[in-house]
Amino acid sequence: MSLAVDPITVSVIQHRLRAIVEEMGEAMLRTSYSQILNSSRDFSTALCDPEGRLIAQAEHVPIHVGALPYAAKAVHDFFVGTIRPGDVYLLNDPYCGGNHLPDLTAFVPVFDGEHLAFWSINRSHQSDIGGATHGAYNASATEIFQEGLRVPPLKLYDAGTRREDVYEMIVLNVRHPRDFRGDLAAMIGSARIGERRLAQLLAEFGSATTHAGVEAVLDGAERQVRTIISGWKDGTYEGEAFLDDDGHTSKDIHIRARITKRGSDLEVDLTDSHPQVVGFINSSFANTHSAVVVALAYLIDPDIPKNDGAFRPLKVKLKEGTVVWPTRRSPCAPITVARRSSRPLSARWRPPVPIVPWPDGGGASALPFKVSIPARRGPSSGICSRPVPVAGPLPPATVGLLRVSGRQQAVSSSAVSRCTRCAFPYFSAVTSSAPIVVAMAAIAAGRERNSR
């Protein structure tokens, strides 16, 4: 029987966990070398338990959120029984819970006495990770091996001692060794801050109260999300998005989402998506799961902690061999498409069609994550890039269903802009999550879409 913890203590533990991951992020921001980290802030910090459950995460890069638990579990399962205080582990393989190869992840184990209690985690985008091209975005890649160095679960520090042979092997394979060394040191330093702060939390509240408080935080987040979902209409809803091509032979590559809502449960079925392609726009299992998580995050109260409990109502169905779950050799460098600058699922957007209201408690100004997609090509060469606010009656707290190649997508109306060169509307939106957001927005609005 678990220990009962009073609500005030639970709230204190919840905010302490949030403060820990935010401090980890602030340390990373101040100590990293590369501009992609200290300026663009392309990193995330999080805490997981030994089973890989997400305990807390800072509001950094949303597409990292749903993938980190798979990485934590991969590291734990590979080294189970040999993990010691002072160890540091690395991973970047998309097929072991990474997002894409540039996103290197550092794991520091946190012990409660002799038992592993938590993982303190930092995932950061490296300016280079080897491979055929600078920065790992190799548009001609047909295998993941052409995109950079794959790092499976790997021990870098053994009981506080760095394994110099492993360290130098990794550094040798990147084009910017000075920045890489500095960024890796910043990542590990950030994760060690999490280790120290969690040790302080355990010492202050005691082991039993801390762990019971963490469970109460997860359960509380689940209750809040289920309450929101329960207010939506039961049914089956659909959404889809298209990519023009993969740069090789495939064209009109589709992602189709069918969402079944029953009570407080959501099943997201992506099995009808396009078969995996030769080019580098496939999405690994962990990254696709993260896109689903991001989609749900758009429709819940932004103040609800984004942790394992909040995502328990979700069940994701994927089919191996599709663009949303390719085989382990497939290239996938630009799959982190829910981030601001990653745009492989860009499409040509049509003028808005019917608007559905955003759920109570969260308008466009309160979105937990903000990401973008580029404009269409204008009358002159190149992508139009000088937006001005769109004129019109669209209120900010709405989500619009826009057509993509004759089909509908969901976007925040406050993000719609119009290009000064071609007057064509474009906007911020979750790209890989777009078909999922469409269906979820339809659920929230009580608008059931016809099943196929």
Radius of gyration: 22 Å
**H/E element sequence:** HHEEHHEEEEEHHHEEEHEEEEEEEH
The largest sheet has its strands arranged as: 2-1-5-4-3-6-7
Number of domains: 2
Which band does the percent of strand residues land in? 15-25%
Low-pLDDT parts are 337-432, 447-452
Count of helical segments? 9
Indicate the percent of residues in helices: 25-40%
Using the alpha-carbon principal axes, give the shape: globular
Biggest β-sheet strands, sense, barrel: 7 strands, antiparallel
Class inferred from helices and paired strands: alpha+beta
pLDDT averaged over residues: 78
The separation of the N and C termini measures 47 Å
- What's the assembly state of these chains? single chain
Number of strands: 17
Descriptive overview:
It is a single chain. By secondary structure, this protein is α+β, with helices and mostly antiparallel strands. It has 2 domains: 7-221, no CATH class; 233-444, no CATH class. Helices cover 29% and strands 23% of the residues. Strands 2-1-5-4-3-6-7 form a 7-stranded antiparallel β-sheet, sandwiched between helices. The chain has a 4-stranded mixed β-sheet with strand order 8-9-10-11. It has a 3-stranded antiparallel β-sheet with strand order 12-14-15, covered by helices on one side. A hairpin with a 2-residue loop joins strand 6 (154-158) and strand 7. Helix 1 (7-31) runs antiparallel to helix 6 and helix 8 runs parallel beside helix 9. The longest helix is centred in the middle third of the chain and has 29 residues, at 177-205. It is globular, with a radius of gyration of 22 Å. The N and C termini lie far apart (47 Å).
